[in-house]
Specification:
Elements: E1 32-35, H1 43-50, E2 56-61, E3 64-68, E4 79-85, E5 91-100, E6 104-112, E7 125-126, E8 128-129, H2 134-138, E9 156-160
Length: about 160
Amino acid sequence: MARKDPAFRADDGKWPATDLTGLKPPGHLHHLNITTRASYDDAAFVEGCVGITSNRCLIIADGFYEFTDPAVTKKKRKDKWQFTKTDEPIFAIAGIWRDTKEVGEAFTMLTMEPGPDIAPYHDRQIVILERGAWSDWLDSSVPTQSLITPLPAGSLQVEQVG
């Protein structure tokens, strides 16, 4: 695939990336999560997130972490939980990207209300797309909301790693 193919915009570790707000200078690897929850008061912001029709990208990953308050009260660090997709070595996170002169290439991961596998650990989660929806996410004619759905229970494996 070509370098400009949206499926690889955020996956190539050689590309400098920053969040969409431009808070980090080019050359710093960073991202910002944007929620798709309709509970925000700013209707324009919410509509902008749920009505995304361009600059969609896939952020390829093999796992992610969530942190919870430690089960042992004397432990100073939070408990660290690793999530991976059941029976799949990689998965795709729904993202959006932009390229500006001031910021350079930037991307963000969309978040949503947690699904059944994440809810015990966090009050939101990244939007993980089922493999059959990857090309739909990149197709601007497919409505965003039809793709932003929680995975069924058991889709993610969780392991305490710290």
